[in-house]
Amino acid sequence: MRVANRVAAAAGFAAAVLAVTGCAPVQSGPAATGADQQTGQLRVWLFDEVNRGPKEAVVKEAVTEFQNAHQGVTVDVQYIQVQTRAERFKAAFSDPKSAPDVAEFGNTDLAGYVAGGGFTDLDLSGWADAKDLLPAVLDTGKVDGEVYGLPWYVGVRALYYRTDVFNELGLKPPTTLDEIAPIARKVRESKPDMLGISAGGKYTYGAMPFVWANGGDIARKDGDKYVSTIDSAESKAGLRQYTELIADDICPPAQCAGNGGDASVEAFRAGKAAMVIGGDFNRKSVDASSAAGKYAVVPLPGKTAGSIAPAFSGGNLLGVMKGSERKTLAKEFVQLLGGKTYQRKMFDAMGNMPTFADVQKAVAESQPAVEPFIKTLNAGTKFVPVTPNWAKIDAQAVLPTLIQEVAAAGNDLDVAAKKAADAMNAAFAS
Amino acid sequence: MTDVHLDPRPATGVRVDPEAPRRPRWKRKRGDGPIAFAYLTPALLVLVGLMGYPIYQLVLISLFDYGQEQVSGGAPLTFLGLANYATLLSDAKFWTVLGQTVGFAAVCVVGTLLVGAALAVLATRVRTWARMTLFLAALGAWATPAVAGSTIWLFLFDANFGFVNELLGTTGFSWTYDRWIAFGLVAAQVIWCSFPFVMVTLYAGIKSIPGEVLEAAALDGASTLRTARSVILPLLRPLLIVVTIQSIIWDFKVFTQIYIMTSGGGIAGRNLVLNVYAYQQAFAASEYGLGASIGVVTTVLLLLITLGYLRALRKSGEQL
After folding, report:
1. Comparing C-alpha atoms, which of A307, A285, A299 is closest to residue A375?
2. More confident residue, B77 or A214
């Protein structure tokens, strides 16, 4: 009998493997089951937020609409913590039974998740909304040309500054990157309690625009591998410009070197900083702080006057898990929640920047405050290397360590950059 | 007393082998082997299940290229042999971190033992209510989960809003920025949450020293210091050994305090200790093979340190 033969062959193969390697650590079985059920419970994981209420309300609306349109389908939404997402997703990939069907995830995690066998490719052809998706943004949902995640919203950062402080001191917002440090120094000189610009030592996505504006990059693609270029002359020029800001006369290392993006913005919210690089997603929280009504936002300037420094196009995607038994339903739910109607609702509720060109235009008209962010987005954005190894470089804190070594520990930039490049290349090669 | 034993053999019923003195020691009790083994079996089974199997898996994983792709079955397993160990041992940062870990653990162990012993002695000298207060305070520190304790300490030592800075009038001073100050703060926290174990154990030890012994020492005219050195300390030695080894193992494996209080290893990773380093380099980065090799190295190191310590004691004449 065929089956018996196959079993015997498998057993023989297993025995041979065991004989060669002794024994091997556990691996979980193939995730995909091939089933595609049309009823039952659709499990959805979304990220928890500091202020989840408005998000939850919009999602509930979408769930109700979806359940009404599909008889016999219930949608169970779970909110998971951003901080512990890595553990949750790893566990979900290793045990498909406890995994959701649809999940929200950060676009920098995408490549790692796809390589880990977590998400299935998403066929968006035949979906009316798809044609208006911004190509640069859709790219952040792709691995090797295939779409694995529908961009749900995009996050770009721009320069926030305190209009009252600038007026008082007779300062104008910087028009080139070079101008930031002198302006910041002037502020701190006259107001010693204030940070000239709140520049965090762990604020990777605040620092990278400096590198990109100077023509540098994190890595370049060489064949099918990445090679780090963080130690190129251009990259180092940008790093020098950024680390110059983490100094006693602008943003003292003791206060700033340990800060990531959130902590950097927090100092601005507390009224303790004259400038900060902040995202469109920070706008609502700044409006609810002591800096409300006393600030303005301009795109982060580039190397020459009038140019805009390329921003990091962060954001979250919606994807369908590979182990899902309800792939069609899952895709339909992704298209509903990630579609134009609900992206607009999410913007109104949370301030999340839409990923469709026409929706973006509409929100810019209704809310002039988002204009600098849209300008930044249209000026061209950059992204981290799309490789599963990026998650590793991120986890090993290679870039924050580089910035901190130069800004706080006083190490030589050339040495630190070389070390970071070596660490990255080691990760890319694995 | 009517029940007089005339039988010269001990009442325990162990047969005394007339040839015993001429045989090597380990052969003498040969007859106990199977019985002893039977008694030990349940403990052995538990140990093998709870310790042996995980260690076996740890060693096994450390020999493979074992990342998230391999765990979820998306990529084939590659047998690397000792390559993970080679990567680790040739990494300069690993040696720096290892040195830091040893130094940090040493400070924590000595600090814990000193504070614990001092407070144990204090507890034997003060009145009941004071002792009760001391114990309640110590048990409070002991019972506080490491995560909560670390966070509370961070609040206390916060640069801008912390109570300590307010008290000292040093608002704005960051306790977690400078490498040594940060290490000192974390060491203080570790000592704070681990001294109660030492204190309670030693207190019980001191209390169990028979009053007659101390009385005899006093009658012989021994000073307090002399009594402590020549009577109490030798009697407490077995307990001291246990708490020292425990402390070494705990403090070598500190994770929570460093991870939380220096937000994952301090500025540019200068406050990393081995466990946090392993987590950051290997587990957070899904390099489980490399992480497992760090685990194996840590285990071997701890075993060596413990064995070395026991040997040193043995040499100084202590029977274990």
Report:
1. A299
2. A214
What is the spatial distance between Cα A104 and Cα A315, in angstroms, rounded to a whole number? 10
DSSP result, A57-113? HHHHHHHHHHHHHSTTEEEEEEEE-STTHHHHHHHHHH-GGG--SEEEEETTTHHHH
Alpha-carbon distance of A398 to A230, in angstroms, equals 11
CA A312 to chain centre: 8
DSSP β-bridge partners for residue A134: none
To probe the interface with A, which of B56, B58, B64, B72 has the most A CB atoms within 10 Å?
Answer: B72
Give B154→chain A minimum CA distance, Å: 14
Helix (H) or strand (E) holding A279: strand A275-279
Q: How many CA atoms lie within 13 A of A179 on its CB side?
A: 14
Give the pLDDT of residue B265. Answer: 86
Nearest to B69 among A117, A408, A409 (CB): A117
Angstrom distance (rounded) from CA B182 to CA B166: 18
Distance between start and end Cα atoms, chain B: 37
Mean pLDDT in residue range A267-290: 91
Question: Which of A84, A87, A93, A413 best tests the B interface by mutation, with the highest count of B CBs <10 A?
Answer: A93
pTM of the model: 0.80
Residue B120 near residue B243, CB atoms below 8 Å: no
Question: In this structure, how many other beta carbons lie within 10 angstroms of the beta carbon of residue B243?
Answer: 23
Among chain A residues, CA nearest to B54: A25
**pLDDT tens readout for residues B25-54:** 555 555 678 888 889 999 999 988 898 899
Q: Which residue has the higher pLDDT, A229 or B67?
A: A229
Does the structure's ipTM exceed the value 0.90? no
Q: Are A381 and A136 in contact (CB under 8 A)?
A: yes
Q: Which tens digit of pLDDT belongs to each residue from A295-332? A: 999 999 999 999 999 999 889 999 999 888 899 999 99
Collapse the DSSP code of A7 into the 3-class scheme (helix H, G, I; strand E, B; otherwise coil) and give the result: helix
For residues B276 and B228, give the distance between their C-alpha atoms in angstroms, rounded to a whole number: 40
Q: What pLDDT shows up at residue B286?
A: 80
Listed in sequence order, the residues at least 6 apart from A380 whose beta carbon sits closer than 8 Å to its beta carbon are A136, A308, A310
Bridge partner residues of A41 (DSSP): A74
- Greatest extent of chain A over all pairs of C-alpha atoms, in Å: 89
